[in-house]
Write a structure and sequence with these properties.
Layout lengths: L4 E5 L6 H9 L6 E3 L3 E2 L14 E2 L2 H9 L3 E7 L2 E6 H9 L3 E5 L2 H13 L6 E7 L3 H11 L4 H14 L8 E4 L3 H15 L1
Parallel strand pairs: 1-7, 1-8, 2-7, 3-4, 8-9
Antiparallel strand pairs: 3-6, 5-6
Length: 191
């Protein structure tokens, strides 16, 4: 059995976190989560190496120059990125590495793996909502965003959904258990 990179993305509010929690309950999938690096400050309760690898801006930029990231980006003056070393280490341990990143980062990972002739170890999955109206309902039910943030998330989702064409698998998240079952089948058929 060859270890794989399982790349999951989709618009904000589509249910990625809930789906991933369910996937991790199945030991047969042999999953390990890829811990991203960031330059933002550690929040209360966060643990180095579990939630993020917290590094300085200078160190992050040094790693960019060394081409050490599968993907990286900058949000609100902080860098976030997926380290090659983090992913390689887990693959060598025989784990399937689950990476969840925003859509542009996911597309960048697909391109990077193609460039390095490693696309054979990738299972890319785009999770889409049944409709924008349903996505709006889910975002509102979370009660975490104000009206302006909800509007921005929905506008961004409309821009992001066409990127699904870059992914090997597109799964519509109508109902969580059904979606999890579909994703498990995708993973089991390719590992």
């Amino acid at each position: 059995m060859t270890s794989k990179i399982i790349l999951i993305t989709g618009p904000s509010g589509v249910g990625k976190g809930t789906i991933e929690k369910e996937l991790f309950k199945d030991d047969c999938l042999n999953l390990s989560f890829s811990v991203s690096a960031t330059t933002r400050n550690k929040r209360i309760g966060e643990i180095e190496g579990e939630h993020y690898h917290f590094i300085t801006n200078d160190k992050f930029e040094e790693l960019i120059n060394k081409n050490a990231f599968l993907e990286y980006n900058k949000h609100f003056d902080n860098y976030y990125g997926t380290l090659f070393e983090e992913v390689e280490s887990k693959l060598q341990q025989g784990k399937n590495v689950l990476i969840e990143v925003e859509i542009i980062g996911a597309v960048n990972i697909i391109k990077k793996l193609k460039e390095t002739n490693k696309e054979n170890i990738l299972i890319s999955i785009f999770i889409e909502p049944p409709s924008i109206e349903e996505l709006e309902r889910r975002i509102r039910n979370r009660n975490t965003d104000n009206e302006e943030q909800i509007k921005k998330r929905l506008e961004r989702a409309i821009e992001e959904i066409p990127y699904k064409k870059y992914f090997q698998n597109v799964v519509e998240n109508v109902e969580v258990n059904e979606t999890v079952a579909k994703i498990k089948k995708i993973i089991e058929n390719k590992t």
